[in-house]
Write a structure and sequence with these properties.
This protein is α+β, with helices and mostly antiparallel strands and about 210 residues long. The chain is built from 9 helices and 6 strands. The relative contact order is 0.18.
Length: about 210
């Protein structure tokens, strides 16, 4: 019995040590720099658009995990807004999220009237309200009204080929890079194994900034 107890204790200690290691391990997986690249002229960018450090988020508005990371990204924008570029790219998981495509197009349509980020924020902040609804076109149109958009133009843009292409271009860049889940974060050409919290993001971004200064 004592021998079994010792074995069990050793296993528990080993598992605990592994968990601690994983929590402290760097959250970067090396990827070729050209798979996602840096910010482009067609990207939606916040922060310092001239920075050599860019955090790219491939995201799906209906994805619960993306919704959970939303508040962390907002914190990071406050912390690093004058030092790095924050890039949002669409990655609607169409096969499992029925409303992902439409909401992505809603932000693009709002962006045509200068309100991309405002629609982006509303969709994440109210994700629980619309995520599993039918007829989400009514909901996004209500959000457009709330944002003071020209509704006729918004409804036209929502179904335009240009908007559909914008969303699809982002989607194809994610698939070309081999991404298969959301959110996927890329920091200066390196895919991140999603950081667990704000502090881990801060550590990674500070390392990237330090590397650029060298």
């Amino acid at each position: 019995m004592k021998k079994n107890s010792i074995i069990i204790t050793v296993v528990i200690v080993a598992v605990a040590a592994l968990a601690i290691f994983l929590m402290r391990a760097p959250s970067i997986i090396s990827e070729p720099a050209n798979i996602a690249g840096g910010a482009t002229e067609t990207d939606w960018v916040k922060g310092n658009i001239d920075s050599k450090v860019a955090l790219i988020e491939y995201s799906d508005f209906q994805c619960p995990a993306c919704g959970a990371y939303y508040s962390i990204i907002k914190q990071l924008e406050e912390e690093f807004s004058d030092r790095i570029a924050f890039v949002y790219r669409h990655f609607p998981l169409r096969q499992i999220h029925a409303n992902a495509e439409l909401t992505a197009r809603a932000t693009e349509a709002a962006g045509k009237q200068g309100k991309f980020w405002e629609m982006h924020d509303l969709l994440f902040e109210r994700q629980d309200d619309w995520s599993n609804r039918l007829g989400v076109v009514i909901t996004v149109t209500q959000y457009a009204e709330e944002l003071g958009l020209n509704i006729e133009q918004f409804e036209t843009d929502l179904t335009s080929d240009e908007i559909k292409d914008n969303v699809n271009d982002d989607l194809q860049s994610a698939l070309k890079a081999g991404f298969n889940s959301t959110p996927t974060f890329v920091l200066n050409g390196q895919k991140l194994s999603n950081p667990r919290n704000f502090e881990q993001f801060v550590e990674l971004i500070n390392d990237a900034l330090a590397t650029e200064r060298e």
